[in-house]
Design brief:
Helix content: 25-40%
Order of helices and strands: EEHEEHEEHHEEEHEEHEEEEEEHEEHHE
Radius of gyration: 27 Å
CATH class of the largest domain: Alpha Beta
Structural class: alpha/beta
CATH topology of the largest domain: Phosphatase 2c, domain 1
Strand content: 25-35%
Oligomer: single chain
Number of helices: 9
Number of strands: 20
Largest sheet: 6 strands, parallel
CATH superfamily of the largest domain: PPM-type phosphatase domain
Strand order of the largest sheet: 1-3-2-4-5-6
Shape: elongated
Length: 426
């Protein structure tokens, strides 16, 4: 089915097809861009109507899949007008989804009576909100279509039709509760995953750190850490599990536990060099024989805080970036394949001598579009906007990057986890 976004007109009711997936009611005359993109991506048919024409829809109830009401900008009178229509929709098992809920009038404002299969959020949608909205739409459409199929059986009596309606309404209510429960579980999983991130970074008189962690969904396929291994060494890394959502998030927890930076031996200890850290991690992953082709990338660095010597090993991860005052940024290259593919995979260890004022940036591949792009003739080219952010005081770095990522327009299918870890030698 091809997505059809009809124009905002009072005659649009007559343009409803035999079955229109989404009817969008708005006082603003347009569909929110994030919702329009979602409907287009999912190939749903849709029509946009002014709230004043909502009553006319009651004549075409059999043609409606689900209704989205954009309440942003509506006044109290429009809310009252919609209240009765919403009740009609829900008696016919047409799920109503409410976006926003602000009313421009005051004391006499009426709350729209959206039941358990409704959904309320602001009109400025986050990625997780768009995903949650799609769950609500798909559930509403699934039960609406089943209802339509069962209601057209010629042998069904009116009593049987009412029984079918009641059964479907109850199933819709139960499914809505299950969706809400799933959303809450995913939200809690995201909070648990954040507990595995460092509560504080090892800042000192000589070292300053900044981090950005922006999951594409409730949970992330990225993880990072920075640990003072002993009085003269700091180990730090970013790892990126291939894929998204819960399977990738679970793999990051495994990586966190399996990446060992040092080992106690009697009364002494041994600090593993990066090559050994990555090699051991790869063997642990391959020995698990993870299902679903679960792989990961990683870049692990070890800094001698006394000599400022940096050693690192990367495994299929974007190259770390060295930013030296007065010089162009440089990618630090090193050989290494994905983690968890071959138990005998080969990796290399590289060494760089850092200086006072240097910055080192690690990032996941989801951040790459904001950092730069590869040019066949000139190699990797850094974005000017990113370089401007990178030259800010490191204390402002994470906030500036977060704003930059949020302001960029990225297609829904291209949204990825964005993680960065930046170190500055004071």
């Amino acid at each position: 089915m091809t997505a059809v976004i009809q124009t905002y007109t009072s005659d649009a009711v007559s343009m409803l097809g035999s079955f229109t997936d989404v009817v969008y009611l708005s006082a603003r005359g347009r569909m929110i861009p994030d919702v329009q993109e979602l409907i287009g991506q999912k190939k749903l048919s849709s029509v946009v109507l002014p709230v004043e024409r909502a009553d006319a829809l009651t004549e075409r109830l059999d043609s409606i899949g689900t209704v989205i009401i954009d309440a942003d900008g509506m006044d109290a009178a429009q809310h009252r007008q919609l209240s009765h229509t919403i009740e009609v929709f829900e008696r016919e098992n047409i799920g109503v989804i409410l976006l926003g809920g602000r009313v421009e009038a005051s004391p006499s404002a009426v709350k729209l009576p959206v039941s358990a299969n409704g959904f309320s959020m602001t009109s400025a949608l986050e990625r997780t909100s768009v995903d949650e909205l799609w769950v609500k739409i798909s559930v509403n459409l699934s039960y609406r279509r089943k209802s339509a199929e069962m209601m057209v059986r010629p042998s069904a009596t009116s009593q049987e039709c009412r029984a079918v309606k009641n059964t479907l309404a109850e199933r819709l209510r139960m499914t809505g509760a299950l969706v809400d429960n799933l959303v809450e579980q995913l939200r809690m999983a995201g909070l648990v995953q954040r507990d595995f991130l460092p509560s504080q970074l090892p800042n000192s008189d000589d070292l300053a750190w900044a981090a950005v962690f922006m999951p594409a969904e409730w949970v992330s396929g990225d993880i990072y850490d920075a640990v003072r291994v002993d009085e003269n060494h700091v180990g730090f890394y970013i790892a990126d599990a291939v894929g998204h959502a819960m399977p990738a998030a679970l793999l990051t927890i495994f990586v966190k536990q399996a990446l060992v930076m040092r080992e106690t031996r009697g009364n002494d200890y041994h600090i593993f060099p990066p090559l050994e850290v990555i090699g051991n991690l790869n063997r642990r992953m391959t020995s698990q024989k993870l299902s679903g082709y679960q792989f990961a990338t990683c870049c692990y660095c070890l800094l001698n805080t006394r000599t400022l010597e940096l050693t690192f090993t990367r495994a299929g991860h974007p190259y770390p970036v060295l930013i030296r005052p007065g010089c162009e940024p440089v990618q630090l290259e090193g050989r290494g394949s994905l983690l968890g593919v071959f138990d005998q995979a080969q990796f290399s260890q590289e060494t760089v001598q850092l200086q006072r004022g240097d910055r080192l940036l690690l990032y996941s591949d989801g951040a790459e579009p904001f950092i730069g792009h590869f040019d066949d003739a000139r190699g990797f080219q850094f974005n000017r906007e990113f370089l401007d952010v990178l030259n800010l005081p490191i204390e402002q770095f994470s906030g500036a990057v977060t704003s930059m990522v949020e302001s960029r327009q990225v297609a829904a299918g291209e949204v990825d986890d964005v993680t960065m870890l930046c170190l500055q030698i004071r």
